[in-house]
Amino acid sequence: MNKILEIKNLTKSFKDFTAVKDVNFDVDEGGFFSILGPSGCGKTTLLRMISGFIKESQGEILIKGESMSGIPPEKRPVNIVFQNLALFPMMNVKENIAFGLKRQKINKSEIEERVADMLARVGLEGFEKKKVTELSGGQRQRVAIARSLVMKPSILLLDEPLGALDRKLREHMKIELKLLQKELGTTFIYITHDQSEALVMSDKVAVMNKGRFEQIDTPRNLYKNPKTAFVAGFVGESNRFELKSSDDGLLVTQKGWKLEKPNLDFKTEILYIRPEAFILAPSDNLININRFKVLIKTILFDGSNTKVSAIVTSSGDELLISLPQNARFEDIEEGDEVQVGINYENLKCY
């Protein structure tokens, strides 16, 4: 597959502060690539360098094999959708989408054709004459995306575009954006601090922390096999335990909970366990697992995402455990003591 974007040793410094530090990655043509990280980690600075609004301190940006050094934003084959959308309230939907084409002095018949085609693609046929102020949040989002895509950019950059939407609409738009990207085949580069957005929509995700990339991987591998403690703690829910040194080859938490793990690296300092990795009432024939008892402290009902807060009987360590959607466990109540298992491979150590 062709690389549409190549980033080589990219760095951006502002006086004494380095916002982006020696970042390297590439993006396949037609892919959905997300950059995930907390506020202030350098995501937006990186996106603005790609778009040309900020000049890099060092490194190189190549789009379709051509260096973007010295190329102004309006000459780059990219377009950008911001969180605030930046739609023109005095214009109707059609005028907003056609705005960039008119500035490029495209002939009227081609503008009509391209706008009509884009309205159909984003599901806004019949909305041409509506003011953007009359639209729902999701509809305005689609207008902003259509206005960018009608310019036929090689890459569409999206800067936390769902951040201003309510939760239910955000969930809906995640699916819409993914389907739209698949249909159009345009390369999307999406930045967000919301792990769910990145995991649901992306082909590849880069986790960014303090100006650097900690890991670039598929959503599944990122979740299942985090390479650093930061990724393990930032992506998905995890139980985190600081460990103390042990002479008997076991993992030992600060409160004294002991767990076996073959081939243990004795430099290990932190342990992460996903809530869904725990096995409630494990059968006797399961091997390669630690078995222990917990006291159910609180049941956190959330439909299919119900969890229990529990305490390890032997040490007092607190755990968050996903409750399997199984009738066998519907009768668990606060105060019950339950045997739990955890497979060796699900103990992530750093």
At a glance:
The chain is of the alpha+beta class and 350 residues long. The chain is built from eight helices and 20 strands.
Strand percent estimate: 25-35%
Shape: elongated
What is the gyration radius calculated from CA atoms? 25 Å
Distance between the termini: 34 Å
The profile of the biggest β sheet is: 6 strands, mixed
Key attributes of the depicted protein:
350 residues, alpha+beta, Rossmann fold, OB fold (Dihydrolipoamide Acetyltransferase, E2P), six-stranded mixed sheet, five-stranded antiparallel sheet, 8 helices, 20 strands, elongated
How would you characterize this protein structure?
- The mean pLDDT is 91.
- The strands form four sheets. This protein has a six-stranded mixed β-sheet with strand order 6-7-8-3-9-10, sandwiched between helices. Strands 13-12-11-14-20 form a five-stranded antiparallel β-sheet.
- A hairpin with a 6-residue loop joins β16 and β17 (307-312).
- It has two domains: 3-233, P-loop containing nucleotide triphosphate hydrolases (Rossmann fold, 3-Layer(aba) Sandwich), CATH 3.40.50; 237-349, Nucleic acid-binding proteins (OB fold (Dihydrolipoamide Acetyltransferase, E2P)).
- The radius of gyration is 25 Å and the shape is elongated.
- It is of the alpha+beta class.
- The protein is built from eight helices and 20 strands.
- α2 crosses α3 (108-121), α2 runs parallel beside α4 and α3 (108-121) packs across α4.
